Here is the input.
Amino acid sequence: MIFPHTGSADAVLDPTDTRRGGRVYDELVGHGVAGVPGREVFEALWPGVYDQVGAQFLVRVPGSGRVAGYASLHGFNFQARHGCCSLAADEAVLGPRGATDAHALTVNYAFSMWNLRKLYLWTLEEDPSALRRTGVEVRLEGSLPEYVLVGGTLRTARVFAVYRDAWERTGTGFVDGRVGRADPA
Here is the structure.
């Protein structure tokens, strides 16, 4: 069984109201978060008007409660058993362990709450390093060249996926270790 953890020593997922696209960016800027992609990225890759949102979280620094990012689980297709994850976190505020924990907690939450076969992560990053640091296999499922206009330049969007079976083998142990339920991976 995958337990829906929402906090570790380095990151906390704090449930919040549903925000879509640019409103996520506006909220993060309002909290003083600087190390996240620009508004155009949120408008292109984050949930839109017609996406079903399952859960959204402010990513906070434990202890201080400072907002350092935002996570969204949305775009579900329950017949195909997949969903989407969007996560933006300021690693300069959270630190590498906090950014990794935020990704791990979000993916873990999705697999614990819904009967998903895989979870997609749409990003402009060439490699989702914070998620890879969990040790779980992260697959590049596709690339969309010139998909997002950022500051007048067309950028490639990449679609990565984490499969439930890989998460159950590696990710759950990582999360349990980070929240103190087992030895860290």
Notes: The helical segments are 22-30, 39-45, 91-113, 129-132, 164-178.
